C-alpha cells in the first residue's frame, strides 16, 4: 500500500520536511497546483519523478490571481481526492499553506511582470492575473527551493511568464513544461471542466478541432489571415464567445504572419455557457 505523503501547512513544518528530503543530496522537483487534481496533474508528478529524486506538490488556491468577478469562492476544492491521487502517485511531500501563511498580515510585496506577461493574450482579459501568479510562484520557489519545477503547457502564456521570471530573478529553478493531457475527444484536461453542462461538454472539443484544422491549413500553405479566420468561424459557429484566437511565436509570443518567422503556437480562449476555456497547440 502506498505511503501517504508528508503534509506541511506551516513554514517551519515545510523546512523540517525538506531537510529530511534533501538527505543524501536528493534533487527536489516541485509541481505547483491549486488542487482539484486530474490526470494532467498526475502526469506532471510522473515527469517530476523521472527528472528528480523527491517530488513536492503544492496545493494552494491563490486568491491574488482571481478578480472579484471570478470564481475564487466556487473554485473546486477536493482535498481528500487530491491526497488519494498523490498517495497513489508516490509523492513525497504536499505543501498546503492557507492564505494567512502565504500572505501574512501586512504583506506588501508583489512581483511585477512584463515580457510574455504583456503579450495581449490572457493579460488583455485578466490584467491582474500574472502579477498574482508570479508573486505566488516566486514565493513557492523560495519556500521549497526546488531544483526543477513542472508546469503544464495548457496554460502556455503562464509557462512562459514563470520561465522568464525564474531566469530574470536568478531563482536557480529549471522550469519545465509538459505536454497538455487531453480527454479522448481532445478536450484539454482542466479543473474548470467540472463547470461544463452536459451540452457544453459535448461542444467543448471544438476548440481543439478548430486549432488542428487551422494548423493543417497553415502547414498546407494557406495565408495566416485565411486560416485563422476559418478557425475562428468554426469556434463561434459551435456556440462559443471567443476572447481570442491567435497565432504567436512559440517563444516570444509575438504575433506571427508567416511560417518562416519561427515556431508557431496557436492559442485560444473562449466561453461556453458559464465556463471559460483556454487551450493551445504547436504548429
Describe the structure.
- InterPro entries: Pantoate_ligase, Pantoate_ligase_C, Rossmann-like_a/b/a_fold.
- It is an enzyme of class 6 (ligase).
- Pfam families: Pantoate_ligase (PF02569).
- With 283 residues, this protein is an alpha/beta fold.
- The protein has 2 domains: 173 residues, Rossmann fold (3-Layer(aba) Sandwich); 92 residues, Pantoate--beta-alanine Ligase, Chain: A,domain 2 (2-Layer Sandwich).
- 37% of the residues lie in helices and 19% in strands.
- A 6-stranded parallel β-sheet has the order 1-4-3-2-5-6, sandwiched between helices. A 3-stranded antiparallel β-sheet has the order 7-8-9, with helices on one face.
- β5, α7 and β6 form a beta-alpha-beta unit.
- α6 crosses α7 and α9 runs antiparallel to α10.
- The chain is globular, with a radius of gyration of 19 Å.
- It starts with 5 loop residues before the first strand and ends with a strand.
- The mean pLDDT is 96.
CATH level-3 fold name of the largest domain: Rossmann fold
Assign an overall shape. Answer: globular
Count of DSSP strands? 9
CATH architecture of the largest domain: 3-Layer(aba) Sandwich
Tally of individual helices: 10
In N-to-C order, the SSE pattern is: EHEHEHEHHHEHEHHHEEE
Instruction: Outline the low-pLDDT stretches.
Output: none
Strand order of the largest sheet: 1-4-3-2-5-6
Function: Catalyzes the condensation of pantoate with beta-alanine in an ATP-dependent reaction via a pantoyl-adenylate intermediate.
Binding site for beta-alanine: 65
Subcellular location: Cytoplasm
Keywords: ATP-binding, Cytoplasm, Ligase, Nucleotide-binding, Pantothenate biosynthesis
